[in-house]
Amino acid sequence: MRQQQIAIIGAGITGLTQALWLQRQGHQISLFERGGERLDHHCSHVGAGMLAPYCELGEAETVIAHWGATALNLWRALVPTLAQPVHMTCAGTLVVAHRQDRAGIQHLAERVTQAGFGAQQRWLQRDELRELEPELDSRFGEALYLAPEGEIDPRSLLPALVETLRQSGAMLHFATEVEAQASGEITVRGQRQLFDWVLDCRGLAAREQLPDLRGVRGEILTLHSREVRLNRPIRMMHPRYPLYIVPRPNHRFVVGATSIESDSLRPATVRSALELLSAAYALHPAFAEAEIVEINRQCRPAFPDHLPRITQQDHLLRINGLYRHGYLLSPLVAETVAALIRDQRPPAATALLWQPL
Fold this sequence. Notes:
Helices cover 27% and strands 28% of the residues. The protein is α/β, with parallel strands linked by helices. It folds into two domains: 5-49 and 154-211 and 304-356, FAD/NAD(P)-binding domain (3-Layer(bba) Sandwich); 93-147 and 214-302, D-Amino Acid Oxidase, subunit A, domain 2 (D-Amino Acid Oxidase, Chain A, domain 2, 2-Layer Sandwich). The strands form four sheets. The chain has an eight-stranded mixed sheet, with helices on both faces. It has a seven-stranded mixed sheet with strand order 9-2-1-13-20-19-21, covered by helices on one side. It is globular, with a radius of gyration of 20 Å. The two termini are 25 Å apart.
């Protein structure tokens, strides 16, 4: 297959994984990002990096779990090949609930079984829970263990992807606005540039071209505590939405995330902060003395069906709508696009993603 010139617009997790997959197929990549290289303006910077396909079945379509299980294996193969170290664990997820919220955990277990993943879950009683998470057995009499789920730290992953692309010869254009895009061409600083393919990975910035795209706000906080020791992500059932507590290096814990039908980027509300902090305290009382390192928010791009979408118009592809599954699904979406460019059709397993105009 001949080397093709490919322009990718947007350096969030979707754009970066697209760039890397296509570069490793031998194509020449030009990546354009309107913000700076720190990417701290991006939705991807704020994401928690959950790689939890089975947990998502509490709310997501079954196909998300099937795609996610495949994507998790892609992450496990990819991360060791990156130019910089990335924090990633695959120690499974523990799902817990207080007595009044037990219906939620039971519903998740039923959905996991119905989707064909029953072998990936196990009910733990207090003694078994103590073996996995010694500090939780006094708070919960049982838990649902889902393996081999995991998590990946965006704050180490995003710069590692950028550096890997740079070392491999990609042309990286940060602080560069793409003023227009069409099949096989873009306009930058008033100048028309031609490519074999153009990939629009701009998330919510593409709403003018994708009118049914909307923002779903998520809020997340980071705590620091030397008194809490957790070995894996904990998903805690909540009356309005499942919350997670994810241990990260240097005694940090990510707690999130709300799902609010809004594209507002105003600061986090007192209500959301209280819910997140209360969940952390209910999981482990030592969080009462934790330091609040960061409270942040962003809006995730979503279509009405909450499924990602690849829309094709000749040699222009718009890749969008990864919603709360961006980190989980991005390598699978990247592999789908790479196959589409190579074979002129998507793989059968992910054909549902593809929507030609």
